[in-house]
Design brief:
197 residues, 8-stranded antiparallel beta barrel, 12% helix
């Protein structure tokens, strides 16, 4: 609950700053992702997911701008065959694919060397909204509520469309259970955004 309050406060501040800026851009975005969860509890390989949300861009000068975003992601991870033996306290027996749903708030710095190409980099904080993993006999979730990632990517602008590709790597441990198995995540995002304002 506390994390959600901080998230609402951050989103309100960022988008209020956009409205006060003399020139800013606002739009919607959506796309797919290939996500890979690392840890012996997960099978090797990438799994498909999707994301959708909104973005804004606040110019600082001719080349630099701040790009805050708010979007939802749904990602799937394939459970390894050895996961049940490694973490017996998790309800993994009836789960083949582990589902994660997040609300994400990246705060990116954008560099525009030319007319239509931008380089993006910065942090992203994600709040877990839903997961099908729980700890048996305990109300505590098996996955941490918050996750911090580093983001780097490229964006190409064409009229009102923004085509982008990004690489994200998790900086924090995802699992919230006592285990030697450390869960982390990396993902590749590809999508398109539409400028509305």
């Amino acid at each position: 609950m506390k994390q959600k309050s901080w998230l609402l406060l951050l989103v309100s501040f960022v988008f209020s700053s956009c409205l006060l800026a003399q020139e800013f851009e606002f739009g919607i975005k959506a796309g797919g992702e290939l996500g890979k969860y690392k840890g012996v509890s997960f099978a090797n390989g990438y799994a498909y997911g999707y994301h959708a949300g909104v973005y804004a861009q606040i110019p600082l000068n001719k080349h630099w701008s701040i790009q805050p975003e708010l979007y939802y992601t749904s990602a799937t991870a394939n459970k390894a065959d050895s996961a049940d033996a490694i973490i017996t306290s998790l309800s993994l027996n009836a789960v083949k694919n582990i589902q994660f749903e997040y609300v994400n708030v990246p705060l990116l710095l954008s560099y525009k060397p030319g007319k239509n190409v931008l380089f993006l980099f910065g942090p992203k904080y994600s709040i877990l909204s839903k997961s099908n993993l729980t700890v048996l006999g305990n109300a505590r979730d098996a996955v941490k509520n918050g996750d911090l990632s580093a983001v780097a990517g490229l964006q190409v602008n064409f009229k009102k469309f923004r085509f982008y590709g990004r690489y994200e790597v998790g900086l924090t441990k995802l699992n919230d259970v006592v285990s030697k198995d450390k869960w982390t995540r990396e993902s590749i995002h590809v999508g398109v955004a539409l400028k509305l304002l």
